[in-house]
Amino acid sequence: MLDRVKHDAEAAGATASVHSLDFLDSSNLTRLRSLLHELDREYKGIDIAISNIGVTGHRSDIIGDTSDLNDKDSDIAAETKDAVLPAETGQEWGIATAERIVQINISAWQTFALTCWSLARARRLQNPSGPKPSLVLLSSSAAFFHPANFGQYSASKAYTYSLGQTLRILSMPYGIKVITVAPGFIESGMTHTMLQTGATTPVMQLGSPLKLARRIKQAEESNEGVVLYPFAQGAQLFAARGLNPLMESLGMWVGGAT
């Protein structure tokens, strides 16, 4: 996947390089920080940093069952049938799953986001009249409203959404743009992995990843605080959460039941 992105970027005239780290290994977070510092020095600053990482509790490498990954030729990153377990095995809500979701969705996400923010802040303090860096932080509309059986993922996204909003306020004195993106159901590898397990999604059209990318580009250029896409999905979830606690509890039950 990254090689394809690199190829498309170079075809458009960009210079691209790929660096791969397994974020389930906590020691790689130190390597990630070092890599970002190296890139910041090499390119004299990172203009736009996009923190886009996340997992749900549907893959066997996340819930802790790695029996299908013993083959040396297997690719952990490949979303194949062998790497997916049926929904409702019980393992997807256990402590192993929770630890892995926190490791990816929070620890790795914030290591990238906060390291880039610190580098951007130092750059702005050194050169206040220079370019204004941007941080684009991917969260999820699941941060607003969620079924109970999606709780671990949603809790992690509530954290990233809250931190993104806080960083936007803290960044204003330094001229750093922070855009928090809260997508709904998007046509993506994550969504297809969920469907392979037998999980269901609400009866709504999956959003286009290309249209989401265009919205993110537009938001970054105009310094919008939050991106909801598809807007109808995100707005409904946000509004339902705000009605009252009873509606939130009812929504969690309905979402879990369906």
Query: Strand-residue fraction?
Result: 5-15%
Cα(first) to Cα(last) distance is: 32 Å
What is the percent of helical residues? 40-55%
**Count of DSSP E strands?**
4
Biggest beta sheet attributes: 4 strands, parallel
Structural class: alpha/beta
CATH superfamily descriptor: NAD(P)-binding Rossmann-like Domain
Which strands sit side by side, in order, in the main sheet?
1-2-3-4
User: What is the name of the CATH architecture?
Assistant: 3-Layer(aba) Sandwich
What is the count of structural domains?
1
Number of helices: 9
Here the CATH topology equals Rossmann fold
User: Helix and strand string, N-terminal first?
Assistant: HHEHHEHEHHEHH
Mean pLDDT: 81
What is the CATH class designation?
A: Alpha Beta
> Cα-atom Rg, whole angstroms?
19 Å
Residue windows where pLDDT falls under 50 for at least 5 positions: 66-82
Structural notes for this entry:
- By secondary structure, the protein is an alpha/beta fold.
- The chain has nine helices and four strands, in the order ααβααβαβααβαα.
- Strand 2 (134-138), helix 5 and strand 3 (177-183) form a beta-alpha-beta unit.
- The chain is globular.
- The model is unreliable at 66-82 (pLDDT under 50).
